[in-house]
């Protein structure tokens, strides 16, 4: 018997090779296929009398085969099947190329639907290679037909046929949404929505089905956030009072004045950690906007209250940089600041033994602990964590926080996430629905707009001359190389080749360094420091340099194969320069001539500002594919739109109602089951 769990392999007429192909697009069970939603439709539902057909229109007719011939064309290697089809109003020629088997299926007298474009064949109308279907089947033409994403070797017809076979199973499909919600928001029952999304009889049915399925997708996101918030509110965090006097000492000691937004962000954070409800905050600020110093202010206050803070960086390079920045920024305060990564452990500028450091962390001797995820993986014990700051990574769940909770008082730490990924306002509510947000919009005073240019291959020499001039007048350059070969996963080969080319052929007069992910951390560290200390003029790098690296004197960013990177990544690379008041330049090398690609790169030339780029990206690609969304864990929305604020407001309300009635969802077992299985996939934490 067919059930939702039935494997597609067990469906009639589905062979082994088909099964393998279906697997490639994630379709294994009947249930998978039911949720394989059409991405568009073709409306062949409007049947036209043959007598009314016009050239170039796309139309569907219903008629009888009057004549059918099948033959090989004389001069070309072509096989032709020709029909004459008629209804009460006239007749039309239909021709198929190279489908000799049609002969077997189609016979004189058969009644067919034919759908396609009307061509002009020497002043008579004809269909060329149209879709066809016998009227008794009525699945692929003569109606609104669903079009699915597919893969080589699986035709639309096959997919539709399989889905047709399993559609009756939807009768037994139980709705996981409680009736109260379905009624309140005027939704179709789930089984009807699924049936109609595949087989809508008209536009209205499609709209109703889509409304229900969009609601569900956004609802599960809202439910996850509501649940997280609820969990979090059950816990208590340590109170970290604001030490105004010492904070002012720190601010006055900086070599610059804080921008208005930096001050405001710091203030919001300090007010937040003064309370015993755990902070759950996002600090958003474009590349180079100065988020690190805001983090340092929060950590100082934490340390002054005898609580530890952890700063997690996405890469070792960045962890090291934060460590150096913190040591430098907080040098007046006599704190113990350590670096802990997989490959090195340091305390106040000295290298220390891993186990010694672990002990000092566990006994509370260390105030600020900076590192990579090794801190979480290597079972480091902490004395009393007040604050966790995560750089360039969006979420840190309740479960992870619980692991770091205070062992004696059962307090859980405050949390701050920092990101340069600008999310357009229309998306923020959806993606960050459970977070408070602080935004640094202004740039430090005196920063100049980075001048960005696209460089075509024929201008390469001129560009090299330009770079040489800029370096000769004191500048420094990054050169980023993309992955060229699939096998060169870390881009080591590409960067090494570029390094050799530049050192021997192009710029033998300059000192050039190489940086990639396979190098030992000590070597990486030395290279970066050499670049920072101007011992190198050019740093050739893979995309490891992407996030966070701060070298204020560097003012040239050269990106090879720029078309291979997305806008978000390009903007991150470019964010490595323009970090001081010198004029910076970003050169995007590409030999790609595609209009679409150049158009995309042109956005880099036009917009300096991450949020503008993100909005642009949203417009051209839609929220599914967009800028940075991938990192937020919301990939694979099948049908909903992350910017659909109206629906999101409803789903947030619905989720809040559900959680208030049954925080662990036990009152709604079907919903709980669906939520749990979905969360294994979305996995926001
Ligand atoms: P991001 O927000 O990208 O992490 P950083 O915190 O690394 O940016 O800061 C970028 C650079 O700007 C650093 O060199 C930092 O010292 C400097 N900086 C930060 N705030 C200011 C300011 N208000 N005025 C001038 N320079 C600043
Ligand atoms: Mg940063």
Can you tell me about this structure?
The radius of gyration is 31 Å and the shape is globular. The protein has 685 residues and is of the alpha/beta class. The strands form four sheets. A nine-stranded mixed β-sheet has the order 13-12-11-14-10-15-16-9-17, sandwiched between helices. Strands 18-23-22-19-21-20 form a six-stranded parallel β-sheet, with helices on both faces. It contains 23 helices and 23 strands. The protein folds into five domains: 1-41 and 156-172, DNA polymerase, domain 1 (Orthogonal Bundle); 46-142, OB fold (Dihydrolipoamide Acetyltransferase, E2P) (Beta Barrel), CATH 2.40.50.140; 180-237 and 611-685, no CATH class; 244-274 and 290-419, Rossmann fold (3-Layer(aba) Sandwich), CATH 3.40.50.300; 451-607, 3-Layer(aba) Sandwich (Rossmann fold), CATH 3.40.50. Helix 9 (260-273) packs parallel to helix 10. Helix content is 38%, strand content 19%. Magnesium ion (MG) binds at residues 291-292, 391, 548. Residues 291-292, 391, 548 line the site of magnesium ion.
Mean pLDDT: 88
Question: What percent of residues adopt helix (DSSP H or I)?
Answer: 25-40%
Q: Tell me the strand order in the biggest sheet.
A: 13-12-11-14-10-15-16-9-17
- Assign the CATH topology of the largest domain: Rossmann fold
Rg, please?
A: 31 Å
**Into how many domains do the coordinates divide?**
5
